[in-house]
Amino acid sequence: MSAGGASMPPNPAVSFPAPRVTLPVGFDILRTYSGAFVCLEILFGGLVWILVASSNVPLPLLQGWVMFVSVTAFFFSLLFLCVFLSGMVNRIDANWNFLDFGYHFVVFVFYFGAFLLEAAATSLHNLHCNVTMNVQPLLNDNQYNVNVAATIFAFVTTACYGCSLALALRRWRP
């Protein structure tokens, strides 16, 4: 009770729980497996983005999704890493362990689908199309080689997201 008999409202800073995060903040995150996998996700995801874009996207229906997933995941993983590097996780009240798990689950599912679509696009190399009276393969040799590399890196990126997902699950549900 205060001097006037009325109770003071609670301090809002005290009533909110502290952010829940078990990963280190700052550059220490780069010394963990999770930090290393996020860096690999950014590196390999960027390579997928570059390789698919350099193939001139001969199958936009299939490879459009691959481009969307690789570009979106690249920027969100970069944002995720920057939030931890800058220490913003201590200022934002959230269950970061759950957000880490939820993010990596969604991106793992999307990247797995993108990997399958890129592999399907690559497998159509020998499919012949009728292009105004002459029959040509759907992918020329250069596009095929670039798509093979994009498929391999999409698989590696999917595996990195899967490892991050497993680590995030361990932190979220010990």
Question: What does this 3D model show about the protein?
Answer:
By secondary structure, this protein is mostly helical. The chain is built from five helices and two strands; from the N terminus they run ααααββα. Strands 1-2 form a two-stranded antiparallel sheet.
Low-confidence stretches: none
Mean pLDDT figure: 84
Rg result? 23 Å
Instruction: Tell me the overall shape.
Output: elongated
Distance between the termini: 42 Å
Strand order of the largest sheet: 1-2
How would you classify the helix and strand content by structural class? mainly alpha
H/E series? HHHHEEH
Number of helices: 5
Helix content: 55-70%
Largest beta sheet, briefly? 2 strands, antiparallel
Provide the β-strand percentage band.
Answer: under 5%
DSSP summary, beta strand count: 2
Key descriptive features of the protein:
two-stranded antiparallel ribbon; elongated; 5 helices; 2 strands; 174 residues; mainly alpha
SSE topology sketch:
Elements: H1 12-15, H2 33-54, H3 60-86, H4 96-123, E1 128-131, E2 134-137, H5 141-172
Antiparallel strand pairs: 1-2
Helix pairs in contact: 2-3, 2-5, 3-4, 4-5
Describe what is shown at a glance:
The protein has helices at 12-15, 33-54, 60-86, 96-123, 141-172; strands spanning 128-131, 134-137. It is mainly alpha-helical and 174 residues long. The protein has a two-stranded antiparallel ribbon with strand order 1-2.
